Amino acid sequence: MRAAVVVFPGSNCDRDMAVALKAAGADVSMVWHKDAALPDNVDLVAVPGGFSFGDYLRCGAIAAQSPICKAIVEHANRGGYVLGVCNGFQVLTETGLLPGALMRNANLKFICKSVDLKVENSNSAFTSGYAAGDVVAYPVAHHDGNYSVDAEGLKKIEAEGRVAFRYVDNPNGSVADIAGVLSENRRVLGMMPHPERAVDEGHGGTDGQALFRGLIDQLVTA
Ligand SMILES: NC(=O)CC[C@H](N)C(=O)O
């Protein structure tokens, strides 16, 4: 499986993402935000965490205007896979690939800790390595992780089973405890918690490994 990891000025989880993808068996290229095209035959684009453009305006708002984001939207519209983690999730909502927005945490503080997440369904490449109902621990590290979507949008997401992960103990005020949401075709996932920071015993836990392994198994056999 070929993966591209996008790097913006201020990304700080790009290398962690590349390490996690490589450990799961992916062939990984790094892509600079000013590039107008993705590498040929890329299966998955990973938009990593960090503070793109210093989080000015709104987290992800400036990054979403980068040339590479046009290519990411085209990739997704062709049915390509996209994973956005933390700032990557913020970027994907700003591009319109995912519904809703990430607002300031309800307690107005930066939150940095491990949280438990319930895997809502295994019906996506991203969650195929888990069983629905599994509880996994991933770190969070954000100040704008409070997922918000209007009532109609929420109804649609829930009716279509597009909540991939829910917080067991909501740390940031996200509506319906949503920690990760899928696109309509289930090939774009945005999530605030960091699976790439839970893939090595040195991280304090390895619950994120199944996300990358499941994704790669599904894409290789697709
Ligand atoms: N770790 C991250 O990606 C941080 C995301 C974002 N800049 C925030 O603090 O909300």
Automatic annotation (TrEMBL):
Keyword Transferase among record annotations: no
Catalysis: reaction(s): L-glutamine + H2O = L-glutamate + NH4(+); N(2)-formyl-N(1)-(5-phospho-beta-D-ribosyl)glycinamide + L-glutamine + ATP + H2O = 2-formamido-N(1)-(5-O-phospho-beta-D-ribosyl)acetamidine + L-glutamate + ADP + phosphate + H(+)
Gene3D superfamilies: 3.40.50.880
Localization of this protein: Cytoplasm
Superkingdom classification of source: Bacteria
EC number: 6.3.5.3, 3.5.1.2
GO biological process: 'de novo' IMP biosynthetic process
PROSITE patterns: GATASE_TYPE_1
Keywords: ATP-binding, Cytoplasm, Glutamine amidotransferase, Hydrolase, Ligase, Nucleotide-binding, Purine biosynthesis
Annotated GO CC locations: cytoplasm
Example GO molecular function: phosphoribosylformylglycinamidine synthase activity
Pathway(s) it belongs to: Purine metabolism; IMP biosynthesis via de novo pathway; 5-amino-1-(5-phospho-D-ribosyl)imidazole from N(2)-formyl-N(1)-(5-phospho-D-ribosyl)glycinamide: step 1/2
A UniProt-annotated Pfam family: GATase_5
Active site feature: 86 (nucleophile), 194, 196
Main location: cytoplasm
Alphabetical list of InterPro entries matching this protein: Class_I_gatase-like, PRibForGlyAmidine_synth_PurQ
Subunit (UniProt): Part of the FGAM synthase complex composed of 1 PurL, 1 PurQ and 2 PurS subunits.
Free-text function comment from the UniProt entry: Part of the phosphoribosylformylglycinamidine synthase complex involved in the purines biosynthetic pathway. Catalyzes the ATP-dependent conversion of formylglycinamide ribonucleotide (FGAR) and glutamine to yield formylglycinamidine ribonucleotide (FGAM) and glutamate. The FGAM synthase complex is composed of three subunits. PurQ produces an ammonia molecule by converting glutamine to glutamate. PurL transfers the ammonia molecule to FGAR to form FGAM in an ATP-dependent manner.
Name of the protein: Phosphoribosylformylglycinamidine synthase subunit PurQ
Organism the protein comes from: Yoonia maritima
Gene from which this protein is expressed: purQ
